[in-house]
Every structure is written in C-alpha cells, then in structure tokens.
Amino acid sequence: MITPPHFPSLATAIQTLFGERTQIEKTSPISGGDINEAYRLTLTDGGCIFMKSNTKENLSLFTAEAAGLTAIARTEAIGTPRILGVGTDAGRGGFSFLLLEFISSISRGGNYWEDFAGQLAAMHRASTDELVSDGKYGFDSDNYIGRRRQVNTGYDSWIDFFRTCRLEPQFQSAARYFDGEDRKRIGRFLDHLDEILVEPEYPSLLHGDLWSGNVITGNDGSAWLIDPAVYVGHAEADIAMTELFGGFSPVFYDTYKNAAPLQPGYERRRDIYNLYHLLNHLNMFGRMYLPEVMHILGRQ
Ligand code: ADP
C-alpha cells in the first residue's frame, strides 16, 4: 500500500509542511462533496491548501484516497492534486483530515476535451505493474466508492473480479429490495456474466468513480482527476461511468475512441458497469435508484 505522510495534528502538519511559524489564518468551507467536509485553508505565509475532513474513525477514507491519487500521479499521464498528507487531530471532538494542493478554478484551456481524452487514454495504457498484489485485476488495498467499502482482491480474470468484487457485494447489501423471482434472475445473470462482459485487451488503472464532479479544471487549465476509487480493470468501465450522469463533451468520446478503440459490443457492457454504481447508489441513498437497477436487469 502506498502510504502518504501521516501527521498527529493539523497544526503539526502545517508546521512540518510550511515551516515552524506557519499557521492557519482562515478556514473557508467549500461545498460540493457528498461524503466529507471540504475547506480552503489560507495560511499565514500567504499560501492556501485544500483540506477534507471527517470523523477520526474515518481516516481510512483518506489513506485510501491518497493511495488512489498516488497511483494516478505515478502514471504521469494526467493531472491530479499533489498529496500533502493525512492525519488525525484531537480538536473539535476528534477528526481526520486529508491535505492536498489547492486547485484554483481557472478557465479551461482551448483543447480541454481533446487533451482530457488523450490523457485519460494514456492513463489507461500506463503500466499496472505492482498495483495488484496477487492477480491482474484489483488493487493492492481496498478503498471506497462513495462511503461504501470497495473490495479489491486480485483476480486473473476481469470478469471474475467484476462479478465477485463489484456486483456480488452490492447485490448482497441490496438483498431487501429483491423478491424470490428477482433473486433467481440475479443468480442466473451473475452465473452468465461471461456471456456479456469480455476480458480486456490490456489491464488499465481506472479512476473508478469518473462522474463529472470528479474532474476539475486544474491549475494548468486542463482536466485533473480528484476523489478516485482506483483499481485495475477494463478501461471501458471508466468510459461507461462518464455516460451514467453525463456532462462530458462528444469531442471527449470521439478523441478517446480514436486513441483507444473500444471493443465491439461496448454499449451492452456499459449497462453492466453502470449497474455497479446504480446498486451502490441504491445502497447509499435508497429506493429511488431501484427502477433503473430493475430496468437494466430486465434487459439481460
Ligand atoms: P467528497 O469526498 O465529499 O465527495 P470532493 O472530493 O467531491 O468531496 O470535494 C468537495 C469539493 O471540493 C468539490 O466541490 C470539489 O470540486 C472541491 N475540491 C476537491 N479537491 C480540491 C482541491 N484539491 N482544490 C480545490 N477544490 C477541491
């Protein structure tokens, strides 16, 4: 597991990173996240950094996020904020934190979507050596999708990985939403997943939660990735997720497909990849996601 610097308090983190005399001058909340509190910290040395915080028991959300950002940064293919550290602090009843380089909102560069597609394709083509401890697909540590744990046990088969580590745990958590007939249908669907999914041409590091809120314009005007749920898998699972909630330009898809053609039959597989995220939403936010889940299952 890739471990970031760990600090015993927020003040220690600031002093270690920016010098003994540096303190936090101002703490400004940032809206937009689902899971954590987010802040811009203005420092007495004139700089500013980004902080996410949660309860102290939830530190593992941040060590997992830092491991994911590190894996993305190591591909050197696409921008992502620099990790400054993680830690816990006894103040305010105890909290955990993640400190990152602050991304200022500046305007997008002229070729934003083409560049983003090319950079994502390059990330998907980067080496995945040493990212999975035992097997070809998975990740060397578990992480989170939203606030739910995402199991990343290594598998040599992508289809086995996706069945065992992605769909099955979500179906199990959502069991109360399904009746006996549904359960039989789900069992048959999982048993025959190899008739729908295909093994990838090459393993890819995936962002894992690639909706538009997790792509922000970085300090250089290009697309940067934040808040990942990384693992090694089939690149088309990332592309599928971009289509689930929308917000990506047609230019992005055209450029991506030129750089890294999708295997035939992607459109049917897209639903299966997105079923994972819809089930996760069903498990996190409730019944309003059930019709879409049933719709996809009904088509299989
Ligand atoms: P959550 O983990 O709760 O989903 P997010 O990662 O989505 O939180 O971040 C919360 C908010 O902070 C979003 O509006 C996001 O755009 C913004 N944000 C995330 N990372 C940075 C950063 N490094 N610099 C500036 N703003 C950021």
Can you give the helix content as a percent range? 25-40%
Which residues form runs of ≥5 with pLDDT under 50? Answer: none
What global shape is seen?
A: globular
The structural class is alpha+beta
Describe this structure in words.
There is one protein chain. The protein is globular. The longest helix has 20 residues, at 266-285. The two termini are 37 Å apart. The chain is of the alpha+beta class and 300 residues long. The strands form four sheets. A six-stranded mixed beta sheet has the order 1-5-6-4-3-2. A two-stranded antiparallel sheet has the order 7-8. Strands 9-12 form a two-stranded antiparallel sheet. Helix 4 (158-173) packs parallel to helix 8 (266-285), helix 6 packs across helix 8 (266-285) and helix 8 runs antiparallel to helix 9. It is built from nine helices and twelve strands. Bound molecules: adenosine-5'-diphosphate (ADP). The site of adenosine-5'-diphosphate has 18 residues, from strand 4 and strand 6.
List keywords for this structure.
12 strands; binds adenosine-5'-diphosphate; two-stranded antiparallel ribbon; single chain; alpha+beta; 300 residues; globular; 6-stranded mixed beta sheet
